[in-house]
Amino acid sequence: MAEYAFLLDLGRCIGCQACVASCKVGNELGEGQQYIELIEKTHGEFPNLSGGWDNHRCFHCADAACVTVCPTGALFKEDGLTRLDRSVCSGCAYCTEACPYEVPVMWEGKSSKCDGCAATVSAGGNPWCVKTCPSNALAYGPREEIQAEAHRRADAMRDRYPNAEVYGETQLDGLGMLVVMPDDPELLDIPIDPKTPFMADVWQKVVQPGAVVLTLGAAVLAGVGGVIARRRHEEELVVLEVERVIDEADEADVAKEEEG
What we know:
Layout: E1 4-9, H1 18-26, E2 37-45, E3 48-56, H2 65-69, E4 75-78, E5 81-84, H3 94-98, E6 105-107, E7 110-112, H4 118-122, H5 128-132, E8 138-142, H6 143-157, E9 165-167, E10 177-181, H7 198-259
Parallel strand pairs: 1-10
Antiparallel strand pairs: 1-8, 2-3, 4-5, 6-7, 9-10
């Protein structure tokens, strides 16, 4: 199955908020709910200041901690992106603690995050943020094409930004959001080497295997219990049969005595 990805070119993002508005309207998000947040970042010391926009949204990690810890399957991987089915979300909030990018949030008691405009894309359209970006900072398509375009843009950008790079090729086994960075990602508070939180590791290595063991153990105990119950039942039938034979013999003796 083909994998898809987003391209986010921070060298072209002008902070216009068009992606924020179109995402909210197109996905019919409720009051106080949003999938994209533009955060202005400034670094350096006056008068040598520079800045940019942290386009905070789901990075669609290949090794997605939110998917790992989700106990109901509400979060899952599809076409290289991280989807969310809120109808089966239990509201446990594990995903909000596990995400290294702090993306999922709780809204009306359930997880809330970008799902890549799954319904719109499956109907043949583009994600809402992509179709409304006026500066062509966003793109969407097959991952290989998006990756090639990201490198083309980063190469063209280096005349002006020598440290330009493509972020997302290796982080967490590859992101579904490839970001063209004009400079060091950490200047925008984006981790160069994001780590899966300890809680997600514990869940993956201890809790889930433990749950499997407990499930298997319960099945084994249920099976053993069934065998024991069956044997006890068979023993009870034997006892009843012996008692029946004895009763019949006693009745026969009584009958003979009465006849005699």
